[in-house]
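Table S4 entry, Cytochrome P450.
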Amino acid sequence: MTAPQETDVFPLTGSTYRGPAPRYAQLRAEQPVVKVPTAGGVDAWLITRYEDVRRLSADPRLSRALACGPGAPRIGGTMHTTPEMIISLDSPEHSRLRKLVAGAFTLRRVERMRANVQKVTDELLDDMQAKGGTIDLVQQLALPLPLTVIGELLGVPSEDLRKFEKWARAFATVDDRAGGEESLNGLAKLSEYIVGLIAEKRANPTDDMLSELIAARDNDDRLSEPELVTFGFTLIGAGFDTTANQLANSVLALLADGQEQWRWLAEDRGRIPTAVEELLRHVNLFATDTSGFPRIAAEDIEVGGVTIEKGDAVLLALASANRDETVFPDADRLDLAREHNPHISFGHGVHYCLGKHLGRMEMEIALDGLVRRFPDLRLAVPESELPWHNGEINHTLTSLPVTWGA
């Protein structure tokens, strides 16, 4: 096996919303398990093939808790999770917490929300149609749709949604400016707000997820106050910012190379569910091409003829796995009719995304409404002029000007 190239410093350069850094294709072919230096100054194992990424995602010997604990190796940057967050826990703590909250995210529970998600989407698109001209789709739809849905899930009063949006966006949009101070301030404001909201819901429960989580119990075990607060802002980061970015980037992917893909969807809206799965696979949401969160080997692990030793940091390149030609033929092509599509964009194993049903539903309803009302939607500026926020978590469009009609 050849040594990693000098350019192989994680995160690898050249990643965009269109796909992971080109170097990943060579790594999958020649060095699917390779130790690379990281921006934080430590070495980490980078895993790039689909089967390895999928298997290790479910391997309990790779610990998220060890990666968040004191003395854990720093991969670099300011992106952070706290030890109490569900994405930072190993079993049995993770299993206990997930069992208590999983009922709020079942397919049946999410389907009960469909009519309301449709209503919110229709209202936003009504407003878009009434305005006409050039519209910023990020501000018009991609941000307010998931924000409103998450706000209603948690029972956030409508009059609080705007300040809620400001704090949530600051928390989720992590970068290295001022050492991540803006993100930390957003986290502090959100935590303070959610503490007050929990107190209100405990005294006056309503029909919302937060009230349901407050009441949730398993063998007389309830979510503690810190767990409720932490889960609240975890839901905001995952359910608001991630969905907003996925929707905006997906619309861009459909429009960027002409309107053929968009018109193809408009011709038959029954194609949208399959197209959404392909957009989830093809559009590279993560700026680092991984889920963003390293793991630490709790014991020695053999992968692809290589030994990952106890204490080593491991990075699972989900974006690379989703471009593995052995699983996805013609993997770099956006194929909206792709039938076999076992992508792992929602992760795999115990940490797979709880909100996957909700995310899919929001994407499907939003795209269905857009292609139905605006079959001739197009970019209002060249793709090269679109503004991006270069943060540490997601490829984030700050504006997506679109237009339609004559």
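The two ends are 57 Å apart (CA to CA).
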